[in-house]
Structures are given as structure tokens and as C-alpha cells.
Amino acid sequence: MGFKLTKEEKNWILYDVGNSAFTLLVTTIMPIYFNYLAGHAGLSDVDYLAYWGYAASAATLLVALLGPVCGALADTRGFKKPIFFISLIIGAAGCISLGLAKNWLVFLLLFILARIGYSGSLIFYDSMLSDVTTTERMDQVSSQGYAWGYIGSCIPFILSLLLVLGADPIGISMETAMTAAFGITALWWVLFTIPLLRTYRQKHFIEKQSHKIRESFARLGRTFRNVKKEKKVFLFLLAFFFYIDGVYTIIDMATAYGSALGLDSTGLLLALLTTQIVAFPFAVLFGRLARQYRTDKLITLCIGAYLGIALFAMFLTSQIQFWILAVLVGMFQGGIQALSRSYFARIIPACQSGEYFGLLDICGKGASFMGTTIVSAVSQLTGNMNIGVAMIAFLFLAGILLFRKAAKA
Length: 409
Prior knowledge:
By secondary structure, this protein is mainly α.
């Protein structure tokens, strides 16, 4: 792995290996299966893309509203691990339930539930970084998490892909194959969480209060006021709101966009598998580069690259172009996510990491509500998906301008 990891760091990284299986399923097979359910119900391609985008938006918006309060509560001594565990169970149970849904609307509702559990668990997981490692090692440990998550998630994905693509030859229905795929993903996710649950200890915390929920709201209010005074944190949150919004919009809607354009489903899935494989060495590379170059310079490079990727996606019409897009995304996806996580962990108070990462989630996965909604709405209003995708470029442009201001603050 390039440098020796502690047991706590390894177990923390394993959760990335576990939850990334769900991420890959959501961005690859799941939209194609939803397209299958929607097609049987007579939905048009534009409506299929739009409803998928609206569901992703609803899930991230709900997490954005709940995240900071739960994060503030999790900062209390002894609370972070139990709340993390509850989020895991909601996500994994929702994932298994998706295999039982035969109606497109029920499927979307269960998807929202699973996505809430998954996204909620990441707030607490990310905030654990300051407990499992030191400030000096954050960039590399964070990068290793994303790197091993990308490569590890390929194993359950390939098993699921073989089931889905081989459903007819082995004599099972698409519904049965997908039920098995959701079950494999949930089991993988839970198994790779067990080591973290066994060894994690909350080192940075706030002492228990007599009125925990009320105090969490009060503390969150104080944090909001403090963020306005802390220029560096405030500007970073604004920048993150825009640029990571663009990143997650591309991740959430890539397969749905390719499917709606009429591109071959098998080719799309293999291209996105390539994204995971490419992302592994590049995430490690960015972690190593952080030893030699300033983190803010590397994040700026990644945002600029994503701006180019968004512009390229506007003109996507063929399978080979989608493959090129998949490789380009893989090169910078791990870097921008891992370095943003470790950069933020360094500029916030460690004992309030839960609530601060809850705020970050509003500006991150919560903010992707805006990107997916804009793409969906513009696609429907214009009847042109390429115009909808073009809107993503403006998110990266705003993000890079704001981030440079944050870096100088």
C-alpha cells in the first residue's frame, strides 16, 4: 500500500471496500434495471431519466436535512458508532428490499430509503478519519480508502454482472438475478464493516448533555454561526457545494444518460467497471502526490479536469466516447473525493467532526440534489439530454473559482 497502515486505519479503509459495492451498483446495474421496470410500465426515455434523477435528488435532500443534526448528536461521547451502525442497517436492509420490488414506483421509494442509510453512514464514517489517524497521514489514508474501495467493489459487481447478463442462459428471470445481485451487495457491505465496528474508538468527542437532542440542535446553531466567521471553512464549503455536486451528478446519472442515448447496456457496464479499475492507481497516486505538493493545488487540478470532462460529456453520442469518458472520470474521481475529505478534516475542530461533516454533506451529496434536478428538469423542458448535461460545466466553473479563494483565505 506504499506505507505501513495501522490496524485502525486498515479497518477504516475496509468500510470503503464494503460501501463502494453499493455505490457501484447504484451507478451501473440499478439504473438499467429501473429502465427495465420503467419500460414495462410504458415510461418514455426522457421520463425514465428524469424520475431516476428526481429519486436521487429526494434521497440526498433528506440526508442533507437530517445529516447535520445526526452528526452533532454523534459527536457526543459514545454515540458515533451506534448511529453509524443504525445507518448501515437501514442502507443494507433497503438494498436487499430493492430485489423484491416489481413496480417502478415502489423500487424508487426503496432506493430512496437505501440511499438515505448509505449516505448517512458516510457522514459518520468520514468524521471517523480524525479518530483513526493523525493529521499528517490524513491525505494518504483517505486516498487509500477510496483506492481500495474502487478495486474491492469490483468483486461483488462482477458477480452481480455475471448473474444479470447470464440470466437467460442459466434459466433464471431478470428479477431473480437482480434479487441475488442486491443480496450479494448488501452482504458484502455488512461483512466489510464488521472490522471497523470491532476496533473503532471515538477519541474526539463532546461530553454527554442531559438533553441530547435539544443540545445537538443548539450546538449545530452555534456551528453555523461560527462557520460564517471562519472564512476558510465557509469558502471551502461553498466551493465544495458546487464542484462535488458536479462530480456526484456525473456519478449518479452516467449510466442513465448512456442508456437514454440508446447505448449498449453491456458496453456501459464494462466501461464503468473500467472507471473503478482506473480509479484505483490514480487514487493512490494522488495520495502520494500530496506528500510533495500542496493539497489545494491538487484539488484545483482535479476540478479543472472535471470541467473538461463535463464539456466533453455534452457531445457524447457513441460507445467509444462513453469509454473515453469512463477512463477520464476514473483518473480524477478518487483524487477529488479523497483529498477534499482529508483537506476538510484538517481545517475543522476534531471534537466536532460529526457535525462539521454533516454540514459538508449538505454541500456535498446533499447538494447533488441540485445537479440531478437541473439535469432532469432541463432535459425534460428542452427535450434534449445533452443540453441538460451541459449545465454540469457551470457547477465546476463556480467551484474552481470559489476554491481558489478558500485556499488563499
